[in-house]
Amino acid sequence: MTHLALPLVSAFLAFLAGVLLGLRVEWVTGGTALAAVPLLLAPWLHRQVVGQPLRANTARSLLLAAMVVVGAGHGAGARQRSDGDCRARLPEGT
After folding, report:
1. DSSP code string of 66-87
2. Helix (H, G, I), strand (E, B), or coil: what is residue 6?
3. CA count, 13 A, side-chain hemisphere, 9
4. Which residues touch 51 (CB under 8 Å, ≥6 apart)?
5. How far apart are CA 63 and CA 65, in angstroms?
6. Rounded to whole angstroms, what are the CA distances from 67 to 41, 56, 77, 85?
7. Which residues contact 92 (CB under 8 A, 6 or more apart)?
8. pLDDT tens digits for 3-16?
């Protein structure tokens, strides 16, 4: 069994990938985290509209995508807050 098959580990790595994306990509904003709401509601909405539940792999993929989006929103919020922090602009060695 690989460690990436564990749900908590894969969710953490997806969140971490989102945080790194949010820290590095300028067009990602803090409100990006709100895009996770439709991803989390998708399995329920699919069952209501189509009448069949999603496959387990699809539901897991939607959850991991939501973790990436939430992580990107958190990373973008941290990037925006660090822009206003004067300590981030100190030269090295001071």
Report:
1. HHHHHHHHHHHHHHHHHHT-GG
2. coil
3. 6
4. none
5. 5
6. 13, 17, 15, 27
7. none
8. 666 788 888 999 99
